[in-house]
Amino acid sequence: MDAVSRGRVRVERSAKRVRTYLGGRPAADTTRALLVWEVPYYPTYYIPLEDVAADLKPTGAVERSPSRGDGLVHTVTSGGGEAVDAAVTYPDSPLEPIRGHVRFAWDAMDAWFEEDEQVYVHARSPYTRVDILPSSRHIRVEVAGATVADSRHARILFETGLPPRYYLPKTDVRLDLLERTGTVTRCPYKGTAEYWSVNGERDLAWSYPTPLPESERIAGLVAFYDEKVDTYVDGVLQERPKTPFS
Fold first, then answer.
1. Tell me, which fold does domain 130-237 have in CATH?
2. Do domains 4-119 and 130-237 have the same CATH topology?
3. Could you say which DSSP state residue 183 is in?
4. Model pLDDT for residues 216-229, shown as the tens digit of each residue
């Protein structure tokens, strides 16, 4: 199908096999999933009802959307698992392609797979690209006037829609100023990150110890939120970018 839009919502067909699990069993398994951008940053999957193995029990609740219409909320049961209020259908949606489909709440399900690879956080966008390039540019990072990193061996990560991220060897970082916080986040393109406070400022730096294969070049390197620190590139102070992480 060609892409269809209504308001800010965009719909197109995914070419991937998509599966989601609940209670140890496949709740849905399809090669006909739709990618629906309900928010501009990333898509979510809508799955044809014919490809759903789980039981969907209407709760009577309704979610209303100006672009998608009235969404009927369901509780999902599969195997020995139950996810309350975890599925929504739009049987009379003005956005015709999503009729006859169901959207599962991502975090309410046990696991998601694209083909045979598990995917975390949200569906991957076909329009997001990650390039990681080695660079000899001089990167220096300051926090409250103190230099916490100084390197000419950066890997610069360019990700669609985000500012460049400078990943630096730990040998070029003042590790004595970093304190692990226990915060963990996941990215569908890079993997699982661990975080550090820097000079008492929480979660200013992070690293991917074992990134996904496509992001292996940043394994074990440290990056800083340029939105919250002073970053110098070849001696020039960079303007702090404005992002959702600001």
1. 2.170.150
2. yes
3. E
4. 999 999 999 999 99
